[in-house]
Amino acid sequence: MELDETDRKIIRLLQSDAKMSVKEIGEKVNLSTTPVFQRIKRLEKTGIIQGYSVKLNAEKIGPRTLVFMEVNLKIHKQSELEEFESTIKRMDEVLACYHITGKFDYLLKIAIKDMSEYRQFIMDKFSKIKNIDSLTSSITLKEIKRDKDVVV
Fold first, then answer.
1. 33: phi > 0 → left, psi -120 to 50 → alpha, else beta; which?
2. DSSP per residue over 106-146, as a string?
3. Element (H, E) at 103
4. CATH number (domain holding residue 17)
5. From the CB of residue 55, how many other CB atoms can be counted at a distance below 10 Å?
6. What CATH number has the domain bearing residue 129?
7. Parent domain of 86
8. Closest Cα partner for 118 from 78, 66, 72?
């Protein structure tokens, strides 16, 4: 599906505030509510808009640490990659996982309370994955920017 500039504006508005009313969006893109509503429904139906979520302020919830883990696998057969990915999808601590190019096979974004919890995650869950060759962890010191997943 080809997105026109109005579709892109609607998407950007929803990315900044998914609770924005159709009327408010219409005012910002110079359309009445009916065409805005129809465009949003079309974007949802075609799968461009996959759902709506809530951004949380991690500091207000309680202390959290983000860890970026770079992982190399021993075996790179499709079945082994699929098994690794399936296992990772079941781990609540893993916020995101990317199959990447370069020095490492995967990049994981992991949220944990503290280093003790990270150690438990490694010992109780991650170390049980059979195909891991190596991993490198980077602990975040400060989040500078967290915005949207896709730029339109």
1. alpha
2. EEEEEEESSHHHHHHHHHHTGGG-TTEEEEEEEE-S-----
3. none
4. 1.10.10.10
5. 10
6. 3.30.70.920
7. 58-139
8. 66
Residues 6+ apart with CB under 8 A from 151: none
User: Do 67 and 140 form a contact (C-beta atoms < 8 A)?
Assistant: yes
Q: How long is the chain?
A: 152
Could you tell me the two tokens for 137? 């962890």
Confidence of residue 144 (pLDDT cuts 50, 70, 90): confident
- pLDDT for 79-112, tens place per residue? 999 999 999 999 999 999 999 999 999 999 999 9
Say if CB 10 and CB 43 are below 8 A apart.
yes
3-state secondary structure of 39: helix
